[in-house]
Amino acid sequence: ARYPQVDVQLHELTTDAQIRELRAAELDLSIGLAPVDEPGLTFTHLLHEPLMLAAPTAHPVLQEGSGAVDLRALAKEPFIVPPRAIGPGLYDLTLSLCQAAGFAPRITQHARQMQTVIGLVSCGMGVALVPASLRHLRRAGVQYRPLLGKPATIELGILQPAQTPNPLRDNFIQALREAAERLEQT
Fold this sequence. Notes:
Elements lengths: L14 H9 L6 E4 L7 E16 L21 E4 L6 H13 L5 E5 L3 H9 L5 E4 L10 E5 L6 E9 L5 H19 L1
Parallel strand pairs: 3-4
Antiparallel strand pairs: 1-7, 2-5, 2-6, 2-7
C-alpha cells in the first residue's frame, strides 16, 4: 500500500447514481464505462476493454465450435441490455454493433446490474454483449466468446468533478492509470 493512511471505500453504483453522488460531493471519483458527457464532470480514459458475447451454454451458436462468433448469427436472438438511462455506453454500443452487422437487436430484457444480465443469460432469457472481464464471474450456464471481425471495445475511465483540486485523488488516479497500463499489457 503506497498510502497506508488513506481509507478507500468502494460503492457499486450505476452510471446515473455515480453522477448523482459526484454532484452531491458524496464521491471523490468514480470508475465506469464511457461515454459520460456531463457538465461539471471530467471523464479520463483508463483502458479499452474488449466486448464478448455471453450466451446460454446450450445456445446453437456455441455448438459451432469454440472460436469467435459472427454477430450476424444473433440477428433473431433476444438481447439483454442495461436500460439506456443507467448504462448508455453499453446500450448504445450494443445497438451500433448490431446495426453495423445488418440488424436491430431484439431487446427483450433490461437489467440494471451486469451480474443480473449474466444471471438472465444463464437462465436462457437471451444473449448479451458484455465487457470481457465479466467472463471471470464463471456463472453456471453461461459461455463467453469473442466477436468475429474487428475487436469491439468499450472504454473504461474515471469520472470526477471538474476543476476541484484534490492531491489525494490525483495520486489515486495516477495509481489507477498505472494499474490500467499493466492490465492492457497482459
